UniProtKB/TrEMBL annotation:
<dbReference type="InterPro" id="IPR050219">
    <property type="entry name" value="DnaG_primase"/>
</dbReference>
<keyword id="KW-0863">Zinc-finger</keyword>
<keyword id="KW-0639">Primosome</keyword>
<keyword id="KW-0460">Magnesium</keyword>
<keyword id="KW-0862">Zinc</keyword>
<keyword id="KW-0240">DNA-directed RNA polymerase</keyword>
<keyword id="KW-0479">Metal-binding</keyword>
<dbReference type="GO" id="GO:0005737">
    <property type="term" value="C:cytoplasm"/>
</dbReference>
<comment type="subunit">
    <text>Monomer. Interacts with DnaB.</text>
</comment>
<dbReference type="GO" id="GO:0003899">
    <property type="term" value="F:DNA-directed RNA polymerase activity"/>
</dbReference>
<dbReference type="InterPro" id="IPR006171">
    <property type="entry name" value="TOPRIM_dom"/>
</dbReference>
<dbReference type="InterPro" id="IPR034151">
    <property type="entry name" value="TOPRIM_DnaG_bac"/>
</dbReference>
<dbReference type="InterPro" id="IPR006295">
    <property type="entry name" value="DNA_primase_DnaG"/>
</dbReference>
<dbReference type="GO" id="GO:0003677">
    <property type="term" value="F:DNA binding"/>
</dbReference>
<keyword id="KW-0238">DNA-binding</keyword>
<dbReference type="InterPro" id="IPR002694">
    <property type="entry name" value="Znf_CHC2"/>
</dbReference>
<dbReference type="Pfam" id="PF08275">
    <property type="entry name" value="DNAG_N"/>
</dbReference>
């Protein structure tokens, strides 16, 4: 893996890479651009061609070519490396233990991606020009979906023929086995051969964050159902692609490739339930909207969302089913560090119908005023439950339900979360007023539930990972100076890592970087490039870039003097710690008389040496 990383890194120029996404402007020895991760009015993103790094000081985001692609396209590291390898025309070294995969076979992912992209394009052309697609075009017009949206979302149509796609594939070079592997066709239940999976449906291509088609959602058309003239003909409203080697429905969100940039800029993602809901929102100018693909929102979706934002508004249909889903989803979000708000639309409307009748401004206003998940829970429980005076048993059940949720939230989030404390006070106050119960009693019951709830163990971080807070802000001045010096050269890194110890670094971020530098120095290369390749997390890469940039501003300073000052400060800190221990022992009377006298003399000697400097050793 390290060899692959190094080969891809050396073959990729960060200026060319960033320039393929952004408009760069030369500034001094580097380049600048408007940062894509916040509303930037002046170029805040700096590209360093010498170090092959980037940094936005406003967002506190930085890294190397891999970090850049991961952040821009929302990719995991392996995906970013594969993309950059493809871009550079590099074939990554295969896993020697993996079975050989024949190009063009059902096991070849490149072939599967190509087959899905070909099918989506064929269905899209069919929608645009085929007479058989007239019912689909009428349906889109009735739903006010424009030609521009049809093009933007790649909407298609599958004719009612049993083998339309199979016939098209004969000249395209894709075998039935490949089409079946991506769930475009299925084997006949009786006899040999296959049939088209999505026949007679309006098709919504599902694309990954790299805009590659990976699956399809197919909606039945009422006009075609009516044309069957069979009372018993009741096809499912939606048919969605099954899991395949290129598609996992629990890790994809419909239109995320189109919504991610706006979601990052607004620091908010709106999740709705249907494909047409997404299209209606985008068409109305609300472009930070996505949908789950034929499944409930789950943990995989949360990990995907967190690549772009920690703020989610879940918009549910206003029917009873939507209200039930709000309750089911709440506990999933509780254990996640995502700020979740839940919006239930009025009058049983879905987002598409609401936007059509009320407009996008009113939709956005509702989204912006949506209650957080706990408040939504409290409101929904309060709506269906009486007061304690009217029905004590039902009120007790309602209170227990809300307190149970609140107890789990606190366990998951942690005792130090001040916003959680304020939210807790608000919820307890509302419960007290709504059900006419003493707030102190509610707090006691909440504490009892917490004691009885199993503790949520913190998840282990990968080796070298760092706190979620911007790491540079957690470092002391001494730690920042130490790491800046470690980054000057491999020789200095080897010298300092042999002298310092990880215990000298009080922050987790500082310790992680020091350990990384020591490991690389022991291997003979602690250069900045090698450290960036070996860094275990994107936060660590960001910290390395930040401190390297700060250190380069002091490139003309006396490095040897800085090292001496650093070690002197370390020595004073150790002396202060030792003095503290000795003073504590003296105050507690834990030293024998002779030892106490010696400790006092040593303390005064150390203090005098600090005030006057070391005694001369000349002559």
């Amino acid at each position: 893996m390290d060899d692959n990383k190094d080969i891809v890194r050396q073959a990729t120029d960060i200026v060319d890479l960033a320039g393929s996404y952004l408009s760069l402007r030369r500034q001094g020895r580097g380049y600048v651009a408007l940062c894509p991760w916040h509303d930037d009015s002046r170029p805040s993103l700096q590209i360093n061609p010498e170090r092959q790094s980037f940094k936005c000081w406003v967002c506190d985001i930085g890294g190397d070519v891999f970090s850049f692609v991961m952040k821009m396209d929302g990719l995991e590291f392996r995906e970013a490396m594969e993309m950059l390898a493809d871009r550079a025309g590099i074939s990554l070294a295969p896993n020697p233990n993996a079975p050989r995969i024949e190009p063009g076979s059902p096991g070849d992912k490149k072939t599967l991606y190509a087959a899905m992209a070909w099918a989506v394009a064929a269905y899209h052309r069919c929608l645009q020009v085929s007479p058989a697609a007239a019912p689909a075009r009428r349906y889109l017009a009735d739903r006010s979906i424009t030609d521009e949206s049809v093009e933007r979302f790649g909407i298609g149509f599958a004719p009612t023929d049993w083998d339309w796609l199979l016939r098209q594939a004969e000249g395209a070079g894709f075998s039935p086995a490949v089409l079946e592997r991506v769930n475009l066709i299925a084997p006949r239940k009786s006899g040999p051969g296959h049939y088209d999976q999505f026949r007679g449906r309006l098709l919504f291509p599902i694309r990954d964050v790299r805009s590659r088609p990976v699956a399809i959602g197919g909606r039945v058309l009422p006009e075609l159902v009516a044309a069957e003239q069979r009372p018993d003909y009741k096809p499912a409203k939606y048919v969605n692609s099954a899991e395949t080697p290129i598609y996992s429905k629990s890790h994809e969100l419909y239109a995320l490739d189109l919504a991610r940039d706006r979601a990052q800029q607004r620091d908010q993602l709106i999740v709705v339930e249907g494909y047409t809901d997404v299209i209606a929102a985008h068409q109305a100018g609300v472009t930070n909207v996505v949908a789950a693909c034929g499944t409930a929102v789950g943990e995989g979706h949360l990990k995907l969302i967190r690549r772009y934002t920690d703020r989610v508004v879940l918009v549910l249909d206003g029917d009873e089913a939507g209200r039930r889903r709000a309750s089911e989803l709440l506990e999933l979000f509780i254990a996640s560090p995502i700020d979740l708000k839940i919006l239930t639309l009025p009058n049983g409307l879905d987002p598409c119908d609401f936007i059509s009748s009320h407009g996008s401004d009113e939709f956005v206003a509702l989204v912006d005023t949506a209650p957080d998940a706990l408040e939504h829970k409290l409101m929904s429980v309060s709506e269906r439950m009486p007061t304690a005076v009217e029905n004590t048993h039902d009120a007790a059940s309602a209170v227990e339900e809300v307190l149970g949720t609140l107890a789990k939230t606190r366990v998951a989030v942690g005792e130090a979360n001040s916003s959680m404390v304020l939210r807790e006070q608000s919820v307890l106050g509302r419960l007290s007023r709504r059900f006419r119960l003493p707030e102190e009693g509610l707090r006691q019951r909440l504490n009892d539930l917490r004691k009885g709830s199993p503790a949520v163990a913190p998840k282990a971080s990968p080796a070298g990972d760092m706190p979620a807070l911007p790491p540079a802000k957690t470092l002391s001045a001494w730690e920042r100076e130490a790491i800046e010096l470690l980054l000057v050269s491999s020789e200095i890194a080897l010298e300092l890592t042999a002298t310092l110890d990880e215990a000298d670094f009080l922050s987790a971020a500082g310790r992680a970087v020091f350990v990384l530098c020591r490991e690389q120095a022991e291997q003979g290369d602690a250069s900045f490039e090698r450290l960036m390749l070996a860094a275990a997390s994107e936060r660590m890469k960001g910290l390395l870039v930040e401190l390297d940039e700060r250190g380069r501003d002091r490139a003309t300073s006396d490095v040897r003097r800085r090292i001496n000052d650093l070690l002197s400060a370390r020595r004073r800190r150790h002396e202060d710690a030792r003095h503290g221990e000795q003073l504590a022992a003296l105050e507690q009377g834990n030293l024998a008389e002779t030892a106490a006298d010696e400790a006092v003399i040593a303390l005064f000697a150390d203090r005098k040496r600090r005030e006057t400097g070391p005694l001369s050793t000349d002559g």
